[in-house]
């Protein structure tokens, strides 16, 4: 299968700090990949270079054969990438339904957009929140609304940064189910800390450390990997 996303020599420096260091990353079409690593490993910075939130200092990002290095987030989304950042990117003053419909309307005329909105709300288990103003919802509920917005855009690639943050156990289970389901029709990259959630969804994972790819393997092998355990413990010991 072809690669839908690649980076070559991707590097991001902030002054003297090299947050992402010469990363070559490959994601196959339809693949679900989790990005792990201790705090400060460079996962979020790498993610932001993919989404257009940051312009890398060096290297390039290719999506579906197109060079997207330094492209605006708007263009990246229009090309078929669904992005969920750490802070829910929703419109607080309107309802969940209206938020999701805005996303569905990007590709579809009104009747189809309405139908897609309803099915997506249902898929995400938030039909009961359709008429609620999003600014009044809990953090976990807002995360699900944002995910519904991403899915209603029918992306070819979905990028999720810490999607399980602030969720209840039930919301997290729903999210895990949704991510697995979404991975049947799109490639998915998930940056996440929540190990319970990772265990629910992860197959092949990429572990970052000090800005570089430290290990790539199946999650069960990663969990047994002593060097991976050490980089996590090392960070905790340093922080203590
Ligand atoms: N805007 C910035 N300016 C300066 N340094 C930054 C900036 N953003 C990130 N860094 C630094 O880059 C390194 C990587 O940070 P990053 O947030 O990408 O790691 P992470 O793996 O996502 O960590 P976490 O899991 O805690 O979110 C850290 O040393 C961090 O302090």
TrEMBL record:
<dbReference type="InterPro" id="IPR003439">
    <property type="entry name" value="ABC_transporter-like_ATP-bd"/>
</dbReference>
<feature type="domain" description="ABC transporter">
    <location>
        <begin position="5"/>
        <end position="235"/>
    </location>
</feature>
<dbReference type="InterPro" id="IPR051120">
    <property type="entry name" value="ABC_AA/LPS_Transport"/>
</dbReference>
<dbReference type="GO" id="GO:0016887">
    <property type="term" value="F:ATP hydrolysis activity"/>
</dbReference>
<keyword id="KW-0547">Nucleotide-binding</keyword>
<dbReference type="InterPro" id="IPR027417">
    <property type="entry name" value="P-loop_NTPase"/>
</dbReference>
<dbReference type="InterPro" id="IPR003593">
    <property type="entry name" value="AAA+_ATPase"/>
</dbReference>
<protein>
    <submittedName>
        <fullName>Branched-chain amino acid transport system ATP-binding protein/urea transport system ATP-binding protein</fullName>
    </submittedName>
</protein>
<dbReference type="Pfam" id="PF00005">
    <property type="entry name" value="ABC_tran"/>
</dbReference>
<dbReference type="InterPro" id="IPR017871">
    <property type="entry name" value="ABC_transporter-like_CS"/>
</dbReference>
<keyword id="KW-0067">ATP-binding</keyword>
<keyword id="KW-0813">Transport</keyword>
<dbReference type="GO" id="GO:0005524">
    <property type="term" value="F:ATP binding"/>
</dbReference>
<dbReference type="GO" id="GO:0005886">
    <property type="term" value="C:plasma membrane"/>
</dbReference>
